[in-house]
Write a structure and sequence with these properties.
This protein is mainly α and 104 residues long. It is built from six helices and no strands. It is globular. The N and C termini lie far apart (39 Å).
C-alpha cells in the first residue's frame, strides 16, 4: 500500500478566513502586518480606517495576537469571531464577498 496523506477540510468560516489571510499576506511570512491588515481593511470597507497605533493594539488584543509580527491566521479567525464582531462589527461573509465576488 502507498502512503496515506491526511486531507484537511475547512468549514466555510475557516475557508473564508484562510482565503482572506492568504490574499493579503503579501510577503507570505505567515503574519498579516499592520500594512497588510490595512490593505485588507481597504479592500473590504467603503471608508477604510487609518490604523493608529492604539487601534492596531486594540485589534491585536481582541484577536489574541501574541506576535509583534502581526496577526496569524488564527488571530484573524478570532477577529472575525464573536469578540471581533462585537468590538469592530466584523463580518466574514461580507468581507469575503467583497474580495472574492466570484467565489461567494
Amino acid at each position: 500500500l502507498g502512503e496515506v496523506t491526511e486531507v484537511l477540510t475547512l468549514d466555510p468560516f475557516h475557508f473564508m478566513v484562510q482565503c482572506l489571510f492568504d490574499e493579503f499576506d503579501a510577503d507570505e511570512d505567515g503574519y498579516l502586518s499592520k500594512q497588510e491588515f490595512e490593505a485588507l481593511d481597504g479592500a473590504t470597507e467603503e471608508e477604510p480606517t487609518k490604523l493608529t497605533p492604539s487601534l492596531w493594539a486594540a485589534i491585536r488584543r481582541v484577536a489574541g495576537a501574541t506576535s509583534d509580527k502581526g496577526l496569524e491566521v488564527g488571530d484573524l479567525a478570532a477577529l472575525y469571531g464573536e469578540a471581533g464582531q462585537q468590538a469592530f462589527g466584523t463580518n466574514i461573509a461580507s468581507d469575503f464577498e467583497g474580495v472574492f465576488p466570484e467565489k461567494a
